[in-house]
Amino acid sequence: MEKIKHLLKKASFFPIMGQKLTPENTIYFDFSESNNDLEKLNLADMASFSQYVPEILDKNGKKFGYGGYLEHRSFYKRSPVFATPSGEYRNIHLGVDIWANIGHPVFVPMDGEIHSFFDHDELGNYGPVIILKHQIEGIYFHSLFGHLSKKDLTGLEKGKKAKAGEIIGHIGAYEENGNWPPHLHFQLVIDMEGQEGDYLGVCAESDLEKYKNNCPDPSWLIFPKN
């Protein structure tokens, strides 16, 4: 874990949204229980919920929103996808969300290959997701891109090379992205644990230590220093 964190901090990356995210074009989004705005929203009405994000962006003159790593979120209870056999709901977000307009292109941050992909079309799930496999100095890790457009899965093949700076996908509309306001869920996963086309993007509080160690903070790739 510490080795990959050190390598990520010093590596070079292409901006995931095609341009650097800066204080000038980006605003932090809080979707934790401390956000009182969520109490006023009808989360079951996706047309209304989806307008919340662009309204905040427009109001503040920003192009992107970001946030969410290890954030405690209560709104996952709207979907049975996040229930566990024990009755505990998964509610700790393991990636970083980048909120943007529908159709905005998403770029490969560093050279890799297609590990797997799938369309999870249940309410609250990823919708179309693509997972890449990368290596730095012989250390392997994976990047997960969730809530994409369905068209982005067309023509994909496992093992296909993905070059830094290439378009990997596009921000999907709520009708196809698992019923969420348009955004990218970006997550790092060291060990895929044999899974294909999927990995938990939200964990239960009782499993936090395990997933925090396997899913390091992806901010180093989202806000590259170079």
How does this structure look, described?
The chain is of the alpha+beta class and 226 residues long. Helix content is 17%, strand content 26%. It has helices at 2-10, 37-40, 46-60, 208-214, 219-222; strands at 26-28, 64-67, 92-93, 96-99, 105-107, 112-120, 127-136, 139-146, 161-162, 167-170, 183-189, 202-203. A hairpin with a 2-residue loop joins strand 7 (127-136) and strand 8. The longest helix is centred in the first third of the chain and has 15 residues, at 46-60. The model has no long low-confidence stretch (mean pLDDT 91).
Summarize the entry for a quick read.
The chain has 226 residues and is α+β, with helices and mostly antiparallel strands. 17% of the residues lie in helices and 26% in strands. It has five helices and twelve strands.
Mean pLDDT: 91
Cα(first) to Cα(last) distance is 23 Å
C-alpha Rg (nearest Å): 16 Å
**Sheet with the most strands: spatial strand order:** 1-2-4-11-8-7-6-9
Number of helices: 5
The CATH class, by name, is Mainly Beta
**Overall geometric form:** globular
Helical proportion, percent range:
10-25%
**Order of helical and strand elements:** HEHHEEEEEEEEEEEHH
Structural class: alpha+beta
Strand content of the residues, in percent? 25-35%
Fold-level CATH name: Glucose Permease (Domain IIA)
Question: Main beta sheet, described?
Answer: 8 strands, mixed
CATH architecture: Distorted Sandwich
- Runs in which pLDDT lies below 50 for 5 or more consecutive residues are none
Total individual domains: 1
